Structure formats: structure tokens, C-alpha cells
């Protein structure tokens, strides 16, 4: 795995604390209401070209329908920590067996306009892991080479109006998939921690 990537991560022994790195921006919209804990898995499938695993959410979900996302979701009372949430959700959403996952570290917490505080867990996924979309939540599973995100020309910046606020946004477009919103912001955090953005 890329040494540059590994050095950019928070160690497993030191998960990120609150608030999220974008807390000031979100507080303008949501105030200081408590954020609900959640976690996502930035799974890098091993191979000559490490590839990040993404999902496309089904069109009938209540929130973020049809959007590209990392496997993950809200923390359950039985989850010991963010890592447990990310592994459980990945198993439920894409059939990823825990024994094929090697956790590597964390990125910084990110707060969403839907009121979540997401802890991104970065992990290695075995090359032979078989992934299958859980049709109730996931329409498609796809992979993008990590190298694509490290190419500066592939990071697109734009400004969005939301509830009277101008918000700086980023997105990536790969193979017909638009990666934006919280997913793109988490990738931006990875790039910044790697000194690439």
C-alpha cells in the first residue's frame, strides 16, 4: 500500500475527536445541535493499482437516494466504535466479509447537513474479496483507482447555494459516476492530509 497514504492517516489507536473538520460551516446551517455518529469505509482493494470501493444508493432510500457513497451508515447501540460501525455496514451493504478487511487508520471527522458526524475508516480489502450489492440499499458497487483521485485535474471545485449560504464544493466524475457531497469532501480531506490538495 502507498506509504504516502499510510502516513496521512490517523492511527487506529487515536480515532478523530469531535467536532468535524467542517464544523464551523455546518454550524451556520444547523447550529450546535448534537450530531448523530456514523462511519464509512474507504476500502482500498489490493492490486497493482489499489482501487477505492464505492456504492450507488438505491433511488427509493429516504436520504441521499441515487448518490455515490462509501459503504457505511449510522452507529448502532451495539457498535463498539466507528470501526465496528464501518465493518458492520459494509457487510450489510456490499457483503464484505470482515476477515478480508485490514483496518489502516482514520481520516478527520466530517459533519453533514443531514446532521451526522461521519468517522471515515480507511482499510485494505483483499484482492479476492467478492462484493455484492444489497438491493434494499445499494443499486451498484463500483471501484475507482486511487491514482485517479491523486491527479489534480480530476478534482473539480464549484460553489453551491444552500439555504441562503454559499458553500464551496468539490466533485469527481469517473466512468459516468458523479462523486460529490460528503463523499467528495471526505476524499478532499484525504488529499489534504496527503499534501495533495
From TrEMBL:
Q: Which Gene3D superfamilies has this protein been placed in?
A: Nucleoside Triphosphate Pyrophosphohydrolase
Which cofactors? Mn(2+); Mg(2+)
Q: Which residues form the Nudix hydrolase domain?
A: 34-171
Q: Membrane-crossing residues?
A: none
What GO molecular-function term can you cite, just one?
Answer: coenzyme A diphosphatase activity
Q: Give the signal peptide, or none.
A: none
A matching Pfam family? NUDIX
Coiled-coil intervals? none
Alphabetical UniProt keywords: Hydrolase, Magnesium, Manganese, Metal-binding
Identify the InterPro entries for this entry: CoAse, NUDIX_hydrolase-like_dom_sf, NUDIX_hydrolase_dom
Which PANTHER family does the protein's record reference? MITOCHONDRIAL COENZYME A DIPHOSPHATASE NUDT8 (PTHR12992:SF11), NUDIX HYDROLASE (PTHR12992)
Q: What is this protein called?
A: Hydrolase
Which species does the entry assign this protein to?
Answer: Dorcoceras hygrometricum
